[in-house]
Design brief:
The chain has helices at 27-38, 88-96, 110-119, 172-180, 199-209, 248-256, 270-279; strands at residues 14-23, 41-44, 50-52, 57-64, 67-74, 99-107, 142-143, 155-158, 186-195, 213-220, 225-232, 235-242, 259-267, 284-288, 291-294, 304-307. With 318 residues, it is α+β, with helices and mostly antiparallel strands. The chain folds into 2 domains: 14-166, 2,3-Dihydroxybiphenyl 1,2-Dioxygenase, domain 1; 183-307, 2,3-Dihydroxybiphenyl 1,2-Dioxygenase, domain 1 (Roll), CATH 3.10.180.10. It is globular and about 55 Å long.
């Protein structure tokens, strides 16, 4: 497995995607699924999930090839209900249930990017509430722009390094080679898809406010969407507007409006991937020969796409 170099975009140094968060109600159950089906390597919360009192939530971190997935769940009370529905994690789960939640990026100049976004009308909230008018603390470690101003993407901007991240260890190349031998045949992570109501202003927001780099655009007839793929740091982001309200993406956008929708991985052999998922009792559909779609009902409500197809203009293609 070739190790993808960490590429940074913009003068603010937007670099590695820290993680994608997959929200659920039982961290151990979802962690086991990622390990069993995708060969995930858990490096935080191996024996039991990590608990963070200030957020009243449980979580673990695992690697699926070059993608870090944070499995997260709000703490539940004895009645099986969300313990703190007023806190962000509990509030999200109460609205969305099991669902992809957000992404995070390491950024060199957090303050510079924050002020750039504020100057372009992006709302950034203070930790205790209220609006940040100007960032002036050179020691600021992270912030969260409002998803209402980022076309629906919840994103953490941070310069705080994740403890024990395998990608920063000397043995990462060896571990990556082991993971690449998994029967699913994942070569690398392709992109996160964000479902949007109106493609043009969403793209404009990312290009102007986050200095994202346009890669390609087109229409995907099988999935019923028009899209633009952007490079943001060392990962790609697909913004997709549904063409038909009755498609899976169309129904998702109608329900949740602008929101993170799916994950896509590059695989070496779609037939082999399909055979492995069938063995694991994970239902799939095959819109076209080079594309396999996992049934969200078998993936904790996360649409996951596996494809052998190349992405036009992909800066990470080997």
């Amino acid at each position: 497995m070739a190790i993808k170099p960490v590429t940074k975009t913009s003068e603010f140094g937007i670099g590695q995607m820290i993680h994608v968060i997959h929200m659920t109600d039982d961290v151990q159950q979802l962690k086991t699924w990622w390990e069993d089906v995708f060969g995930g390597y858990t490096y935080m919360g191996m024996d039991e999930p990590n608990y963070l009192p200030i957020e009243d939530r449980h979580a673990c971190l695992l690697m699926v090839n070059d993608l870090c997935v944070e499995v997260m769940a709000p703490a539940m009370n004895d009645a099986g209900e969300v313990n703190s529905p007023h806190l962000p994690v509990g509030k999200f789960y109460s609205k969305f249930g099991r669902h992809l939640h957000s992404v995070g990026y390491y950024v060199d100049d957090v303050v510079g990017l924050g002020n750039h976004m504020i100057d372009r009308g992006i709302y950034i909230g203070k930790p205790g509430g209220g609006k940040v008018e100007q960032m002036d603390d050179p020691n600021l470690m992270y912030f969260y722009p409002s998803p209402k101003d980022t076309a629906g993407l919840m994103v953490e901007i941070s310069k705080h390094r994740m403890p024990n991240d395998p990608r920063e260890k000397a043995e990462w190349s060896s571990l990556a080679s082991v993971m690449s031998a998994h029967p699913l045949g994942i070569e690398r992570f392709s992109f996160v898809t964000l479902g949007v109501q109106d493609l043009e202003p969403a793209v404009k927001t990312y290009v102007e406010a986050m200095k994202a780099v346009p890669v390609s655009e087109g229409i995907d007839e099988d999935l019923g969407s028009k899209y633009v793929i952007l490079q943001l740091g060392d990962c790609l982001l697909q913004l997709a507007q549904p063409l038909e309200p009755t498609s899976a993406l169309g129904e998702h956008v109608a329900t949740y409006r602008n929101c993170i929708y799916s994950l896509r991985f590059k695989v070496s052999d779609v037939d082999a991937a399909e055979a492995w998922l069938t063995k694991k009792n994970v239902k799939t559909t095959r819109p076209r020969p080079g594309l396999l779609v996992i049934d969200p009902n078998d993936a904790f409500n996360a649409p996951i796409f596996l494809s052998s197809e190349e992405i036009e203009g992909d800066p990470f293609a080997s």
